[in-house]
Write a structure and sequence with these properties.
With 122 residues, the protein is α+β, with helices and mostly antiparallel strands. It has 4 helices and 3 strands, in the order E-E-H-H-H-H-E. It has helices at 29-45, 50-69, 76-91, 97-100, and strands at residues 8-14, 17-24, 101-104. The longest helix has 20 residues, at 50-69.
């Protein structure tokens, strides 16, 4: 399900499968990137090097991918953590941003007016 905010939505993919959707409105893409940077900083404080972080983030993304593929329940916290992991992998340049992130603009609702045009044969 795609969650739409007032500015659109942030769609996250893994292995060409849509995993998560986050609204863009109150939270901008920059705010989601700050969460990933905080995750990276906390990992460095826990004495984990970049190679280990990439391995852990990749394993977590694969775990969520398998859950989604098998139609198992994924909690909201797991979706948030998945977002932070994906953006961290992008930050480390392990994955290309264009392959895993898509920013969808807000869908425009076109309301068609009820017009009744009667063609009279003359």
């Amino acid at each position: 399900m795609i969650i739409q905010g007032k500015d659109g939505s942030l769609l996250l993919f893994w292995n060409d499968l849509l995993i998560s959707s986050f609204p863009l409105g109150l939270n901008k893409l920059k705010d989601y990137k700050v969460q990933s940077e905080n995750l990276i900083i906390d990992s460095f404080k826990s004495n984990r090097n970049i190679k280990k972080q990439i391995q852990v983030y990749k394993c977590f993304c694969q775990l969520i991918y398998n859950k989604k593929k098998n139609k198992e329940k994924i909690s909201g916290f797991d979706h948030q953590r998945f977002c932070a992991c994906i953006l961290s992998l992008v930050r480390f340049k392990f994955v290309d941003e264009d392959d895993v992130i898509f920013i969808a603009p807000r869908k425009k609702n076109y309301k068609r007016g009820k017009r009744f045009i009667q063609h009279l044969p003359f």
